[in-house]
User: Fold this.
Amino acid sequence: MEGPDTTPRNGHPHDQESGGTVLTAPRPAAPSPTPPARERWRRSTRMGLTVIVAVSLLEAAAFAGTYYLDTSKYVSTDNAQVDGDKVDINAPATGTVTQWNVTNGSTVHTNQVLGRITGIGAGGQAQHPIKSPGNGTVAVNNAVNGEDVNAGTELATAFNFNDIYVTARVAETDIKDVHVGQPVDISIDASPKTPVAGIVEEIQNSSAGSFSFFPGPDTDPSNPQKVDQYIPVKIEFTNTDGLTPIPGTNVTVHIHKP
Assistant:
């Protein structure tokens, strides 16, 4: 005689039947995923960062050293430009420009007639010669034939290239270290690789103000504007290495301290 059927239902050996209810044994929970370990920096990466930091520190130290040497040896400013004695050619009367034959680069001489102004008004035939007040080379030409102008209008500007110099504006706090006769290293923006030298020829008594909107420690809070004062210094060229400096060109000067 066969005994009772003890084969688990559905073929699961752990299933048990009790009072018509199938009991299922709990299954072990799946293990939770382990987060990946933090990736460590490679040795080469750490070395690279160390080198970058070291180079940055060396560059900062070099800059600080260069700045100290420059300030201890020179009074430097880039608030400077090539200048010269201007020859302003102005309209002698109100009228129309005629017979104007001036262009940039034209050479003019004292009392040379450069054109005429035909008067406007009654008759309208009066001719006023336009004369150059001095010798020079025209750098700026503002006039054209047929143009109506007022008396005193600047028609052209010439410079005497035999007397070209640099006007440098030195901060009032540094002017005590500048004296006539000091040598000057000049860097012309248009030709920075050309070595140019000069000498301090004149220190003007007047000063020029430049507004700064960053108040200083002693500034009145009710008026935060601060005026920085600059002293014009005239520098004569002693060597241009064959270069012809053009008036109006920006330059940087390094005045040797005594």
Observations:
- Confidence is low (pLDDT under 50) at residues 8-18, 210-216.
- The first helix runs from residue 43 to 73.
- The first strand starts at residue 16 and ends at 18.
- The domain at 85-160 is CATH 2.40.50.100 (OB fold (Dihydrolipoamide Acetyltransferase, E2P)).
